[in-house]
């Protein structure tokens, strides 16, 4: 396989693989409908005050360390390459380096072992910091660089396009100035779409050579199914239209030749898992409600969810074609929490899944899809006494429980009677407690790596690294203190670098061949560096890892260094049949043999690597699994609409406010009456026979609502001046890593790049794609979910 890296002025890196590909994941897919206010040109977030987490004495455990043999050290030394990147010598003021971009472009075709300056290919042009580098999701060889062009002095911007992974670039003069990153179509990277600074919607069908303006007054857009494109716009062209719910939603199915208006008077919209969501006010003065379409906007139905007042919001936490996780904020400006609901396969009927779900005032949710095990989700709840605690579900939100105490860790004296593991997520990362989010990957079956605290709740003290090898059932303490970590060789190799050491510099990397049970330490450089980030080839099948950082020079300029370590020469033996065992997922000790390992209606037996086998899975490794059906039990069912699961019980109870009347739902203009015993099967559950409760849906011959258009308020509605924010986290299948390495002037400042993935500034719609690399810290370069990232931005911009 051929790999290439592009480095922009020592500040940006593009690692590209011709055939490598990230697995498409649906984790961390989030759509948020928020209320904000804007005064003049200064945007201000209506965020709630930060809540302090409690501090408690740290539990004790000893990390397992194995000595590195002399031979192993020699082999790694021979396969470790340090490269120094020279900063731009073109005269430019200091602030232009931080705010404008860079004029040096470097390229590597050997995993970062050597670099070549190719700045002349882009005429030494300064590239934008905000969204300067983009890579095609379906073709790693397609790259777009956006020049930093002054708006007042030019009629349009400039981009540089490459179809050969940076071997050559073509300069394109744009007839507009882009207001956000250019967006690729997810299947055909020749199709590009972007919004200009004057609200124009521009489309290119030939990878940016020719552009056509297809609409004006555009506020936001998103690709739907196939080549369908949805976008909202204001016919009056007013910037306050989205705050008053006066936007129109249009659809084009022929790339801008014809248009169809599918909704009007909306606040915002989103497209997740095949479902099109709109947020509207049905009548003047009424709270907002959600309408859902599963047929690309032909018909809308009202989601059976609590309505949201002006200080509340909705957020789609995760979703696919079978089910949606929806967070509904609790009333009150300082509630900090809400309720998680799960939908049916139509996205219309919702059941209560989890109460008091934490959603911080900074717009952070800890909701995490554990992609290494089917049906597993992690998140945090806010107890009435203010404690933040972690809960886990092994059946897609059917039931939630606290995490078990790690096997090798003892609790402190003050929490022996109430001791569980609690996982740090977005809330903790945003507040600087932890540098990384939980990490998992479908190719590393059952493996989960996360920062955690032990006790009765999450602690604000330095977290430790904990590892689970069975998808979250059992945990063990793995590393003391916070670390940056990465999964390599489909879980056969895990690497970690200490975060925030005492002197701020690092020179060692830790690696484990037994899923984090024991670690070896390798000193990769004699001159320590200030750490900026970890990057690896997309996916988890690589055995190369690059450590990025800088050393301050006498002139206070950073000397950028990338150290690439090739572990393939250390683990030379390919794994054979004797190195693998059969493993039943979701199996627990002492369970019923008939239902042991049954989740969502079937069992899965995997072929996975033995702990004591020191070998490599290799690039041809494919996850092997066998499925077998299970009899239905109550665990295969969610509580139906109007019902809830009683605490510490699998039985569904009817809600008091629905106890005396039939459950009626308006679907496609006809009223549907639902008769149920309180249970509905979890979407995608494949169980057979067993527990089968009655559930009958009958269409009543009564017209209701409007099946083709959500009911809307008058266009001259005098609703408060507020704004909806729609955040969409899309999981991409791209095969490119973009890493912004934090450039720094030693005595002045360090340039910060957020480790969240691309922020598409759409006014009310922002898209984020998680990336294939590993984050350094909240101001460094990449996230941890194994998918592509295009450009990073500050977390402060997630809520406008």
Automatic annotation (TrEMBL):
Segment forming the signal sequence: 1-20
Source species: Oncorhynchus kisutch
Gene Ontology cellular-component annotations: cytosol; Golgi apparatus; membrane
Keywords linked to the UniProt accession: Glycoprotein, Membrane, Repeat, Signal, Transmembrane, Transmembrane helix
Location(s), subcellular: Membrane
Keyword RNA-binding: no
Transmembrane segments: 724-746
GO BP annotations, alphabetical order: endocytosis; Golgi to endosome transport; vesicle organization
Record has Cell cycle as a keyword: no
Compositionally biased spans, kind Polar residues: 781-791
Residue numbers spanned by region Disordered: 29-59, 778-800
Superkingdom: Eukaryota
Domain VPS10: residue ranges: 94-709
Positions in coiled-coil regions: none
Pfam families reported in the protein's UniProt record: Sortilin-Vps10 (PF15902), Sortilin_C (PF15901)
Primary location group: membrane
Protein name per UniProt: Sortilin
Gene: LOC109878576
